[in-house]
Design goal:
The structure holds two protein chains of two kinds. Chain A is of the alpha+beta class. Chain A has 20 helices and 23 strands. Chain A is flat. Classes of the chains: A alpha+beta, B alpha/beta.
């Protein structure tokens, strides 16, 4: 196609057509920049939408199937309250799913049904319709056919959470009886955690060094007294320490430990032979009190009054430690300690033999390797004033961890201790209140008896923190095993819930864009099974608390697309000026080509092709730049944050990191829209080129 | 002896440039050119020789009258210029950013006759060889002399095997030696390939070499 080859020739930068080249370069740069900006913006926006939709649907599930009022007024539901086999109490959906019989009523043993009692709803074979098991069977079949389709029953309840926050006091070794105890009380909603690790695991907050240190701290403390809201017995028990510490060490491999500043004392025996260290010695008059060693140039510790600080050199030679200063020299005892004016990190390995004998944490020996002033330190240290700095979780350990974990059946489990404390997951906001992994407490709820209201308590401990995302109940929702919710629901008199929305099935799917199709499919299957009077299916788009957010996302998307198109049109308008200049520059060539038989259409095509090529190259460069930007978005955000002096993007809204995936839809849209707009922009110059009279041009140019 | 077929027929051509004071260049111009015939149009500068040639070559429209090409199957002006007419201009009008080979083969690339790149190159090489320029085919035209440029322009005009060459002062920008070489090449090529020729010139000697001569004077072709 000769038009394209001519167009490409015109676009090659040349010195003699500098102005055209410059304008072409500018057009290209403007289009690239606009495409780059738009694509980065649209990608981040799309990523944000996905993140928020994820937050919205991870815990709430994109689809919920709840019983309708007809379910609760049915014979199937009400019969449990008339049957001894069901303990004369109505069952939740989850309990119905596990129930041995759809109809537990035994006319010989159970009381006679009143005349107004609902009639059973038989199927075609005269057997009582079991809406729960039938629905579960439909969902199981769908789960087998569709990848990513996961369902489970869920229940919600409410209780009062009271946590005991037992903490060691600074400067006191663990188990020395110098603990502090605080309480945290919170009225909470209780919900079922997703059983699939695919859904729950990404929501769990990673365990911090603080969490692991706390678990080691708690290892020796007796758990009795959990249920007390007075100051409970929090005695340290050597017996429990040895029993608890070994499994913990099997689960956690400690990589590095950090010295507690300023309480850690460095034994001089860790210093290498014949290696001088810059150090300080504190004297009271002429008496040596204490040695100080530091990594930093300036001492941070305050110097006590009436003392004098001498700077000198510390050297270990033939086992003797000498501090020389001001032409003087003093010998330090081999078991002396130096105060560290800094915190240092040791690569650490626990001496297993010492663990077996240990009665408390300070009995454990740590093999430590580190350095100070760039010189190596090596030796053994007791676990005193040392904190775990970095660690790895041994995922293959046979020991059940004290945190939420996936079992061999790929199901998330919450741990239960031998003393029947139940592991619960708290929203990550609790961390800000100082709650740590392992903190113990109880859930309080009341039950009405014939004569009084009784308070019941379920012992719990913190088995992890999760990201609540967008939850209808905000950051007050605890994830607890279904058994706990059920037992609270069956006896609860303190919290009243809408029973329709707090019990049912949750359904997760891989692709949220298929939520409407999946909803229709489930509804169709429910209809075919004759269960439509019992169940209603809602998608996340209909959740009351999500409607506004989703509507906002939709409006934002349309608005951004509109703004994007306008900016793109403005950018493409640059092409008009470039092409007009090019037409003026190439008048003679246009006339020559026409004299050789080139049609007006061909001439228009040449300039149209110039527009398309500029638009397409600009768009491709912009897309490439956007991909590079998104790949390095963390670095860019860091630079922006440094320049602004504060976080460039709020973590609360944008999450821990900005989305970095290129929006394919937006890229394709820009790849199509830019050349089209470029062609449209090229129309005016193309028409101008067509209107040239070759005869006049050839005469005037000759 | 059988009469050669008519290649170009111009009837009552008139051209007036519109403006505040309309300028009538010529009127009632009638011209028939037969196959293989060479026609020279003489005239002083500004009499409208080039304008007449552009009208004959469909580059411009006459104010009155018609130009027809009885041998052509198409009435499209672009196709006529591509398939039946070859232009040679006084100032060569070659494409500066292209090589000689590309310039000569350009009419072939523009033409609707689909020719492969190798056929285009072969044809261009053949014509350049005829013009004695085969050793310079890969040079950009800006490196050629005036005589070479005009010979290249003749090769380009002949590329699509047109039935008529319309030549506007081909030697106007050349020295004597180059001018006579171009004259010879032009007339020999037309004879050799049986092309008709309409030559616009003020060079009476060159015009004398043509079969027929006309004078454009005071707006009439005599």
């Amino acid at each position: 196609m000769f038009e394209l080859s001519i167009a490409l020739k015109y676009l090659i930068p040349r010195k003699k057509q500098l102005s055209v080249t410059l304008i072409a370069g500018m057009s290209l740069a403007v289009i690239s920049m606009v495409v780059w900006l738009l694509l980065v913006f649209l990608s981040v926006t799309e990523g944000m939408e996905k993140t928020w939709l994820g937050k919205l649907t991870d815990l709430n599930a994109p689809l919920k199937i709840n019983p309708k009022q007809a379910y609760f007024s049915s014979y199937y539901h009400q019969i449990d309250s008339m049957s001894s086999a069901s303990g004369f109490s109505a069952k939740t959906v989850g309990e119905k799913l596990l129930a041995a019989s759809s109809d537990p009523y035994n006319p010989d043993e159970d009381p006679e049904l009143p005349s107004f009692f609902p009639r059973p709803d038989p199927d075609a074979n005269g057997i009582l319709v079991d809406p729960v098991k039938s629905l579960a069977s439909i969902l199981t079949k769908m789960q087998q056919k569709k990848t990513g389709f996961i369902f489970q029953d869920y229940e919600m309840s409410g209780a009062m959470l009271k946590l005991q926050m037992l903490r060691g006091r600074p400067f006191a070794p663990f188990g020395e009886g110098r603990e502090s105890l605080n309480f945290l009380t919170q009225v909470s909603y209780l919900a079922t955690p997703p059983r699939s690790p695919k859904i729950l695991a990404p929501l769990l907050a990673p365990k911090t060094a603080g969490d692991i240190n706390h678990l080691f701290f708690l290892a020796g403390y007796r758990s009795e007294g959990n249920l007390s809201d007075e100051a409970p017995d929090i005695r340290f028990s050597s017996l429990e320490f040895s029993k608890n510490i070994s499994p913990l060490l099997e689960l956690v491999s400690i990589k590095t430990m950090k010295t507690s500043y300023p309480s850690f004392r460095l034994p001089v025996r860790l210093l290498p032979e014949n290696t001088p260290f810059s150090a300080y010695a504190l004297f009271g008059g002429e008496t040596y009190i204490e040695g100080l060693i530091t990594n930093s140039k300036k001492l941070q510790l305050p110097i006590p009054g009436g003392t004098r600080l001498e700077k000198g050199t510390l050297l270990k030679k033939d086992g003797l430690i000498k501090f020389s200063f001001d032409r003087k020299e003093i010998n330090l005892p081999s078991d002396a300690f130096l105060t560290l004016d800094d915190s240092i990190v040791f690569e650490s390995k626990i001496d297993i033999k010492s663990v077996q004998r240990a009665k408390r944490i300070s009995d454990i020996i740590v093999e430590a390797e580190g350095n100070i002033q760039g010189k190596p330190l090596k030796g053994t240290l007791p676990w005193v004033n040392l904190e775990i700095d970095s660690f790895a979780i041994n995922e293959n350990s046979s020991v059940s961890p004290p945190w939420a974990y996936a079992d061999s059946k790929e199901e998330m489990l919450l741990p239960v201790t031998p003393s029947k404390e139940v592991g619960i997951l708290l929203p990550k906001g609790f961390r800000d209140s100082g709650v740590l992994l392992g903190d113990r407490g109880f859930l309080s709820y009341s039950s009405s008896t014939a004569s009084a209201m009784q308070e019941l308590r379920t012992p719990v401990f913190v088995a992890g923190f999760y990201d609540p995302g967008v939850l209808s109940v905000g950051s007050k929702c605890l994830l607890v095993p279904n058994e706990v919710t059920r037992s609270i629901n069956s006896s609860n008199a303190s919290f009243s819930f809408d029973k329709i929305s707090t019990n049912g099935f949750q359904v997760w799917i891989n692709d949220l864009s298929k939520v409407d199709a999946t909803k229709k499919e489930i509804e169709r299957k429910i209809e075919e099974a004759g269960l439509s009077s019992y169940w209603q299916v809602t998608s996340f788009k209909e959740y009351d608390f999500a409607k506004d957010l989703l509507q906002q996302f939709r409006s934002d998307k349309y608005l951004f697309a509109l703004v994007g198109i306008i900016i793109l049109i403005v950018a493409c308008c640059n092409i008009v000026s470039f092409l007009i200049l090019l037409v003026n520059d190439k008048k003679k060539e246009i006339a020559i080509l026409e004299s050789m038989g080139a049609s007006k259409k061909s001439i228009a095509c040449i300039f149209g092709a110039c527009g398309i090529v500029i638009g397409t190259i600009g768009c491709a460069v912009g897309i490439l730049a956007a991909a590079v930007t998104l790949r390095n978005i963390d670095t860019i955000v860091k630079i922006l944050s440094v320049l602004q002096g504060h976080d460039a993007f709020s973590q609360t809204f944008y999450g821990s990191r900005l989305p970095d995936t290129l929006s394919r839809g937006s890229a394709v849209f820009l790849l199509i829209a830019t050349p089209i707009l470029s062609v449209l922009a090229g129309l005016i110059p193309a028409l101008k080129a067509c209107k040239l009279n070759p005869s006049i041009v050839l005469r005037s140019e000759s | 002896m059988t009469k050669s077929p008519l290649v170009l027929e111009a009837r009552n051509i008139a051209k007036t440039f519109e403006g505040e004071t309309p300028l009538e260049l010529f009127k009632g111009v009638c011209l028939n050119v037969n196959q293989g015939e060479s026609v020279a149009i003489l005239g002083k500068s500004g009499t409208g020789k080039s304008s007449l040639l552009h009208i004959l070559g469909t580059l411009d429209k006459p104010t009155e009258g018609t130009v027809s090409f009885p041998l052509a199957s198409s009435f499209s002006r672009e196709r006529l210029r591509s398939e039946h007419i070859g232009f040679v201009f006084q100032s060569f009008q070659l494409l500066e950013d292209y090589t000689l080979l590309e310039n000569v083969s350009m009419p072939g690339r523009i033409s609707r006759r689909k020719m492969t790149q190798s056929k285009l190159n072969n044809r261009a090489c053949f014509l350049l060889d005829e013009m004695g320029l085969s050793d310079k085919k890969n040079l950009q035209v800006k490196f050629l002399s005036g005589g070479e440029k005009q010979r290249a322009a003749i090769a380009r005009a002949l590329f699509n095997d047109p039935s008529i060459l319309l030549v506007d002062e081909p030697t106007g920008n050349l020295d004597q030696a180059n001018a006579s070489a171009v004259q010879t090449i032009l007339l020999d090529s037309c004879k050799k390939y049986g092309k008709s020729l309409v030559l616009v010139t003020h060079d009476r000697e060159f015009a004398n070499l043509c079969d027929t001569r006309y004078q454009l004077k005071e707006g009439f072709l005599q």
